[in-house]
C-alpha cells in the first residue's frame, strides 16, 4: 500500500477516511469520498494479493472502482497482477493505458481459476470505454489458463474494433495460448499498428515455430513499434535461421530502438555468425544504447573473436555504460589475454566501470594469474562496492604476492562487508600469519570473528561469501 500511496501522491492529493487513503477532490461529496475509498481499497487489495494471496478479488467491485481512476493508481494495480514469465507483460507494445505506459516493477501475481461469471465480467471489460477497466481486465485475464479464456480472446481478435483486437492480442500473449497462433499470424497483416505490434509480441511469448517466418516478414514493416515487437519476438525463439536477417537489421534499420533489440536478439540466440556485425556496431553505431547492447551481445556469445572490439570500446567509448558493459563482456568471455585491458580499466573515471573491471578480473581466476597493480589500487577506491569487488577478485585469483596489500587494506577498511571480503581474500591467498588472524577476533562484527576462527582452524572455503555481481545487464 505504501508503494501505491508514494507514487500517486506526486500527482494527486490524498485524504484519509477511516484510516484508508482516498483520492481527494475539491468538490468532494460524501458519496464521492466513499467511492474513492472503495476504489482505493480494491486497488490495494489487488496489490497486496500479488504478494500475500489475500481473499478473492471482488471483480465486479474492482472494475466499478477502476472506472475513471487516475492512471498512476491504475498502473500500480495492473503491475500487481502481471504474470511471471519473461517480461511479465510489461514489455507489451500497446496497452490500454498507452502512452502512459505500464509500470516495470517486479511484482508477481498468482491466481487460482476464477469463477466463470468473473471471467465473463473481465471479458466484457475488454470492450469498456475506460482505459483503466480495459487494462485491469486484460491483466487479470492474463492470470488465467489459456484453456479457460483463449477461445474467447480469439473471438475478440476478429472484432471490427481495432482497440478490442489489440487488447485481445495482448491477452493471448499473456496466457500464451497455443490455440491463438494461427489467428495471431493472420493479424500480423492487420491495418492497425497496435494490433500488428501486439500480435507479434504475443507470438514471441507463445514461441511456436510456425510463426517464425511471418514474424521475420515484419522486419520491413513501416511502423517502428511493429518492427521492434517482431525482432524481439524472434529473439526469444530458439532458431538460428533468422540470424542473417537480424544481422541486416542491426546494420541497416533506421531506428536505434530496433537496432538495439536486434543486437539483443543476436546475443540471446548466441549467434556466433553475428560477431563481426556486432563488433562493427559496437565500434561505429551513433547511438550509445545500441553500442551498449552490442557489447552485451558479444559477451553473451562468448566468442573470443569479440575480444578486440570489446577492448577497443573500453579504451575509447565516451559513454560510461558502454565501457562498463564491454568490461562485463570481457569478463564473461573469460579470455586471459584481456587481463591487461581490464587492469587498465580499473583506472576508469566511472566507479561502475572500475567495479565491473574488478569483477571481470576475478573471472580470470586460476592458471597462475597475477593480481594487476590496478586491482590492488582498487582496495582503496572511494566506492565501497568497488572495494568489495576488488577483494572478491583477489580471493578468486589467489595470488600470494597480493597478501601485503590485502593486509594493509584490512587495517584501513571501515566497511564491515568489505572487511569480510578482505578476510576471504586473505584466506584464499594463503594467509598464514597467526598474528593477523588473532587480531581479527576482537572485531565487533560476529561474521568477521567467525571468519577469523575459520581461518585459524585452516578452513579455506569461503564461497560464496561475499559474492558480488556486476550491475544488471541491458535488456530490451
Can you describe what's shown?
This protein is mostly helical and 476 residues long. The protein has helices at 2-8, 30-52, 59-66, 71-80, 116-125, 131-141, 146-157, 162-175, 181-187, 193-206, 212-216, 224-235, 243-252, 256-268, 275-284, 288-301, 307-316, 320-333, 339-345, 351-362, 373-377, 384-397, 403-412, 416-428, 434-440, 446-456; strands at residues 14-17, 20-23. Among the domains are: 1-144, no CATH class; 346-476, Leucine-rich Repeat Variant (Alpha Horseshoe), CATH 1.25.10.10. The chain is built from 26 helices and 2 strands. It has a two-stranded antiparallel ribbon. The two termini are 29 Å apart. Mean pLDDT is 83; it is low at 1-29 and 100-110.
Please outline what is shown here.
The chain has 476 residues and is an all-alpha fold. Among the domains are: 1-144, no CATH class; 346-476, Leucine-rich Repeat Variant (Alpha Horseshoe). The protein has 26 helices and 2 strands.
Amino acid at each position: 500500500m505504501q508503494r501505491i500511496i508514494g507514487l500517486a501522491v506526486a500527482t494527486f492529493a490524498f485524504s484519509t477516511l477511516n484510516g484508508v487513503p482516498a483520492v481527494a477532490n475539491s468538490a468532494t461529496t460524501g458519496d464521492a469520498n466513499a467511492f474513492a475509498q472503495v476504489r482505493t481499497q480494491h486497488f490495494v487489495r489487488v496489490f497486496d494479493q500479488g504478494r500475500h494471496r489475500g481473499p478473492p478479488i471482488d471483480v465486479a467491485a474492482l472494475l466499478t472502482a477502476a472506472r475513471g481512476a487516475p492512471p498512476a493508481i491504475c498502473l500500480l494495480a495492473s503491475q500487481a497482477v502481471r504474470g511471471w514469465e519473461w517480461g511479465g507483460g510489461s514489455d507489451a507494445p500497446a496497452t490500454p493505458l498507452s502512452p502512459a505506459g505500464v509500470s516495470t516493477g517486479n511484482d508477481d501475481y498468482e491466481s487460482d481459476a476464477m469463477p466463470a461469471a468473473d471471467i465473463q465480467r473481465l471479458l466484457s471489460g475488454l470492450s469498456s470505454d475506460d482505459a483503466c477497466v480495459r487494462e485491469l481486465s486484460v491483466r487479470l485475464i492474463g492470470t488465467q489458463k489459456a484453456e479457460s479464456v483463449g477461445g474467447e480472446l480469439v473471438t475478440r481478435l476478429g472484432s471490427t474494433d481495432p482497440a478490442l483486437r489489440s487488447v485481445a492480442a495482448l491477452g493471448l500473449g499473456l496466457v500464451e495460448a497455443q490455440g491463438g497462433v494461427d489467428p495471431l499470424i493472420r493479424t500480423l497483416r492487420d491495418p492497425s499498428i497496435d494490433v500488428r505490434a501486439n500480435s507479434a509480441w504475443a507470438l514471441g511469448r507463445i514461441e511456436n515455430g510456425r510463426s517464425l517466418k511471418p514474424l521475420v516478414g515484419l522486419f520491413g514493416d513501416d511502423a517502428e513499434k511493429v518492427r521492434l515487437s517482431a525482432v524481439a519476438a524472434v529473439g526469444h525463439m530458439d532458431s538460428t535461421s533468422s540470424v542473417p536477417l537480424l544481422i541486416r537489421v542491426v546494420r541497416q534499420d533506421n531506428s536505434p530502438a530496433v537496432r538495439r533489440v536486434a543486437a539483443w536478439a543476436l546475443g540471446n540466440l548466441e549467434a556466433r555468425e553475428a560477431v563481426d556485425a556486432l563488433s562493427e556496431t559496437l565500434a561505429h553505431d551513433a547511438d550509445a544504447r545500441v553500442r551498449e547492447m552490442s557489447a552485451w551481445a558479444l559477451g553473451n556469445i562468448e566468442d573470443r573473436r569479440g575480444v578486440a572490439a570489446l577492448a577497443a570500446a573500453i579504451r575509447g567509448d565516451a559513454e560510461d555504460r558502454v565501457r562498463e558493459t564491454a568490461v562485463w563482456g570481457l569478463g564473461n568471455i573469460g579470455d586471459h589475454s584481456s587481463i591487461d585491458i581490464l587492469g587498465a580499466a580499473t583506472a576508469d573515471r566511472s566507479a561502475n566501470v572500475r567495479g565491473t573491471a574488478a569483477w571481470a578480473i576475478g573471472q580470470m581466476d586460476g592458471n597462475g594469474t597475477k593480481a594487476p597493480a590496478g586491482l590492488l589500487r582498487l582496495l582503496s577506491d572511494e566506492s565501497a562496492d568497488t572495494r568489495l569487488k576488488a577483494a572478491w577478485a583477489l580471493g578468486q585469483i589467489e595470488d600470494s604476492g597480493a597478501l601485503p596489500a590485502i593486509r594493509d587494506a584490512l587495517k584501513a577498511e571501515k566497511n564491515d562487508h568489505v572487511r569480510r571480503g578482505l578476510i576471504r581474500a586473505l584466506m584464499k591467498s594463503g594467509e598464514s600469519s597467526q598474528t593477523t588472524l588473532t587480531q581479527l577476533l576482537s572485531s565487533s562484527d560476529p561474521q568477521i570473528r567467525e571468519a577469523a576462527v575459520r581461518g585459524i582452524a585452516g578452513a579455506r572455503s569461503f564461497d560464496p561469501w561475499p559474492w558480488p555481481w556486476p550491475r544488471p545487464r541491458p535488456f530490451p
